Amino acid sequence: MTDIALKMVFGERAKYAMLVSGICFSTILMTQGLALFFGILGFSYATATNVRAPIWVVDPLVQQVGDNQPLRDTDVNRVRSVEGVAWAAPLYVGGAQARLLGGGATQPVTLVGLDADTLAGAPTKLVAGDVQDLRRPQSVVVAEQFVEMMQRLRGERLRVGDVFEMNDRRAQIVGIAKTAQGQGGASYVFTTWDRAREYAPSQRRMLTHVLAAPEPGRSDREIAQVISERTGLRAITEEEFKRMSSHWMLVNSPIPYVVGLIVGIGFVIGLGVSGQTFYTFILENTRHLGALKAMGTSNLTLIRMVMTQAGVVGVVGFGIGVGVMSAFFSMLPEGRAPLRLLWPIPVIVFGAILFICSVAAVVSSWRVVRIEPAIVFRS
Amino acid sequence: MSSVSSNLAANVAVHLSGVDKSFRNGDQVTSVLKQVQFTANVGEMVLVVGPSGCGKTTLLSVLCGTLKTDGGEVVSLGHELHRLPPAQVTQFRARHVGFIFQQFNLLPTLTVAENVAVPLRIQGLPLREALPRARQLLERVGIPEKANELPSRLSGGQQQRVAIARALVHEPALIVCDEPTSALDSATGHQVMELLHEVTRDRRRTVIVVTHDPRIYRYADRLAEMEDGRILRVETPADSVRIPPTSFSL
Ligand SMILES: Nc1ncnc2c1ncn2[C@@H]1O[C@H](COP(=O)(O)OP(=O)(O)OP(=O)(O)O)[C@@H](O)[C@H]1O
Ligand SMILES: [Mg+2]
Prior knowledge:
The complex is a heterodimer.
Chain A: H1 2-11, H2 13-44, H3 46-50, E1 55-58, H4 75-80, E2 85-100, E3 107-114, E4 126-129, E5 139-143, H5 144-154, E6 163-166, E7 169-177, E8 187-192, H6 193-199, E9 209-214, H7 220-231, E10 234-237, H8 238-252, H9 255-284, H10 286-294, H11 299-331, H12 344-369
Parallel strand pairs in A: 3-8, 5-7
Antiparallel strand pairs in A: 1-9, 1-10, 2-3, 2-6, 2-9, 4-7, 5-8, 6-7
Helix pairs in contact in A: 1-11, 2-9, 2-11, 2-12, 9-12, 11-12
Chain B: E1 12-25, E2 28-41, E3 45-49, H1 56-64, E4 71-76, E5 79-80, H2 86-96, E6 97-100, H3 112-122, H4 127-140, H5 156-168, E7 174-178, H6 186-201, E8 206-210, E9 222-227, E10 230-235
Parallel strand pairs in B: 3-8, 3-9, 6-7, 7-8
Antiparallel strand pairs in B: 1-2, 1-4, 4-5, 9-10
The structure holds adenosine-5'-triphosphate (ATP) and magnesium ion (MG).
Magnesium ion binds at residues 56-57, 178, 210 of chain B.
């Protein structure tokens, strides 16, 4: 009887399209809401994505990646001397203002100062130039977004070898890197730690983070713990740092409300519109279901048929919705939009769609069970 | 599957005695069947006639097991429907009853052959086994070439032929028809009745037809006249209006 159930759905093109598009629309809304959610979270911990290190050591008061609390310069050596630490390097992360030569408006950037000896944490995905050239005087590696931002400002595209200014000092581009976009839309500029001192607005202390790595055979987690105990600083793995940041955003930012609204609307549309459309579909088929019932189809079989119909509509609608969304996301410029289609998203959305279809199927089944077979004799 | 009443003659297909049925509409209770006595013998075609609203359809629903009575006994093909749990009544219908409705009630998204196969599918037969038998039946009702059409492409008379094929495909012992001709014009109605008469005549099959179309009275072996929830009388139509079964051909 499954094939009969399916033909009942597929046979009525217009209704089938209605049912599927409701689920599809709901899938799209929820997917994009969740993608926005993960995207914005990604923005919030972009520094930990762009500067790679197994262990991050920060001030104990720091609660999220974007909070750059200064440390003492001596903290690098304190971390380095903890047993089990393979290496430790200083890092500066802070705001700076960039300006093209010849004047014009300044643009905010996130300035990253790397340890000049090791270049620990330097960007790995360069589209032009060479990270090693950061060792040359007055050199910087800029993010692709920086190039685009400056192009919008001035019309010309910056290339490797071009020069701009930060804090009235020359900065020559030696590389262009692919990076994740950061909080507030500021793009990343990488240089050495010493040079960051010149580019950044003057500050008393320039050390914001210590990057570290465990010796071979020791886990990041374990050594982070040891560093915390020995130094009284907060040492955490990259993953923990990101998670901590996400958590902070969830609790302190309006993101959950914005995203919750979108996902909620998607869910309500799915449940309300698709659920109701499905129920209407069953109502309109009451006569046919009644005929099947009169001819001796059991309630159990009819319920199975209804479940099959709801299931098929759900899976097809979901499939099209996710397909449309992944096609759409693949067309977006990389790293620019705060949208990330991570694997948990389709899983979560599928769960929601399944729930919607189950509710629709259960309510409709209840209706089907109550159909009097004798109605088929009424005209 | 159910107890067989031993005190009924072997040639009795359907026996109702003292059947009551009323419907409640808010505070208002309408008594539709009042102590109905009714018998149909094996192999007979019985027409149930009477004015609109007298309870014909309700009687038909009760004797085929789509409607529960309030009281009385309903014994169909030896099954005491008034005693059986609902699931077994459903099974009874699936195995033993063929249905023909005024509005045909074909599934619009299934082909003609698939529609005819439905009773076999309900009994659990896979499509590939059910379809050939459905085609045989379509041949028998004279529209084999329509097997792969959708019902909406067929005329009313053709649709009712499909319904007849569907009512016969699982070889039920009881066929119930509610106003099978009233959605059809007179000529088509006669053709359908002739077909129904012909295809049911060669089996020991009981056919009960509810109608208020006097033009088809002559197909009846017996005519049960109903009025206000009671069977007034059962008579055999005059020989002059009855048509000998041998006069049909297809
Ligand atoms: N499910 C129901 N609920 C309430 N009243 C009903 C129901 N079914 C039938 N009735 C009422 O019972 C009475 C008999 O109905 P039934 O359909 O059996 O008559 P009928 O003889 O078949 O009439 P017709 O020739 O018009 O088809 C009618 O008054 C009808 O309104
Ligand atoms: Mg009626």
